[in-house]
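task queued by scheduler; priority normal; single chain, no ligands, no partner chains; default sampling; output format set to structure tokens
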Amino acid sequence: MNKYLTAPRASKDIPKGIPYIIGNEAAERFSFYGMKGILVVFMTKYLHILTDNPNLAAMNKAAAIEQYHNFTSWVYLTPILGALLADTLLGKYRTIISLSLVYCLGHLTLAFMGSGGLTPEAWMMTGLALISLGSGGIKPCVSAHVGDQFGESNATWLTKVFGWFYISINVGAFISTILTPWLLEWYGPHLAFGIPGILMAIATYVFWLGRKKFIHIQPKGMGFIRETFSREGLRTMTKLAIIFSFVAVFWALFDQTGSSWVLQAEDLNRNWLGVHWLPSQIQAINPIMIVIMVPIFAFGIYPVLDKVFPLTPLRKVSIGLFVMVIGFAMVSVVQQWVDQGQQPSIGWQIFAYAILTSSEVMVSITCLEFAYTQAPRSMKSVIMALFLMSVSLGNFFTAGVNSFIQVPNQLVAATSLNMTIQAKDKNGKKLLSTQEDILKLTSQTKDINGNSIQYITNQEGSYTLILAGKDGTFGTTTDIRLKFSKGGKQIAVKTAEKTNLNTAFVKIKSYFDSNKNTLPKTQAGTDLIKSIIDNWGSPLQYRLVNRNMFRITSLGADKNYMTENDIVLVSTISRPSKDESAKKKPYSWRENRIIELKGDEGKREVVKSRGGIKEIEFDTAIMVGGQTNLEGSDYFWFFTWLMLGTALVFVFVAFLYKPKTYLHEETK
């Protein structure tokens, strides 16, 4: 005899297992959003300093966004595995408990990044893979498990409980997105990733406590397979897949609040309500707005709209997609201001969050309930997984866009080779101890054009790595020479465009000095240097990135903009700070780590970043390729127009859809 309830009891009361599910969800969401919320900032500012190599470059922003959305897409793809386990073999309860343990192991792995054995990036990827399996595997089961607690008698509670369920998600998310960035800032990644792991362990325990209160819908075994691939099952999945493919575009935009929006926040004035907010903490606005807006929509806006026209679930979704267009258009405008050298208030992004959250209420919560009610009784988890796959599809698209827009960096081959030359064993002895070993390695190493790399030693012990460039021939204008110190520190990058780029830099700096320390906008700067012609007959290009950064570009040997042959001077500006308290505040974990890693040079870097300098300083670096060919406001507008087109087409699809509702039968 089964010791658990296997069907809902006839009752008009709220099911007894609901508090345990909601408590579990709040703690689990704390763990997930806490970890996920700091991921982009961690990859761009912390990951590279977890090694003992002070010369390791930080991950570029587009690559970090790509990794972030790839991880998110796997989190929402693995639910199909959890759904299959739950509906064919283990049932929802045992699936959730089992995969929650995998989930905890993933958090533990992230907390050990930089502890040796593996590279920090390998630790990170292993941890993210385990979290993808654990978090993703339980997702369709948890939301479907909520619906399993209801029968026909208390089905009127379903909408409110799904609303509470969503509120519990956002309460956990709010607390974690406030706390975890602060932990990362002051206590480092080990604690920042470790605390969410502890919360996941608590979530697992709370769920276990409710085991005797839950309704345990039994797995259907092969009967589930037969129903899934029956005519009705296939028809249901096909109909919903069409709807969810449009919702995928919503997620392609919405989930960028944890990636491109965070990176945009770094360029905004984050002093708001008397507090200086960390870039990742701005995400906390979304969950707190959800908590406020769910009851406003449920008891205010929806009843009013329903009096004007019947407000079906698909009409809610349709309206929500158009609202998303407005929200993303807002951040596109904010980015235009940044591109023009301004520093807008973070309040503008918060306003966009309010619009975005309204869209989320209408799309995400509605789809959760809609997916459950449209699923045949034995397919609840699979249909939930199908809905979650729309999140995966949207994130795969965003990751794909960010992968596509990255221009290959020609210098990576040389800098990677340099790391190999400097590699040491556990006793601190270099693995390549002779010049013959190094020459053999360099002759076998290929650049992105398939050419070998030359290695030349200098009298003072330094050495130079030479890339042949586009023409594949050494000793021509396409050569790229990277000079390294004896210890492997990159000293200089020399190209045929050194003189031209420096001449253009002087013109831009002169404009800056003559215009109250303001950089020229992109078109004005381009006009200023267009008379300077590179070695291949093309005028130099200028782009203003933000008020403290600009780029000057030679199109290189192929004469095309935004390719791996572009030779780019990147200049960043450090300004003295008038805030004396900011200069004197204790060092953050990251600042202490930079000083530990780089010594006196690291301390100068930290002081400069705090504004502890007497006058404005310009720093320059040379890249060959390595840019992003969809950036700034163009990036945000691309997604805005995509969302508008999707919303327009969805109106017609929603009109043609014929819904069919399924709920569990009650026991007598």
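post-processing summary
- The longest helix spans residues 79-111.
- The first strand starts at residue 271 and ends at 272.
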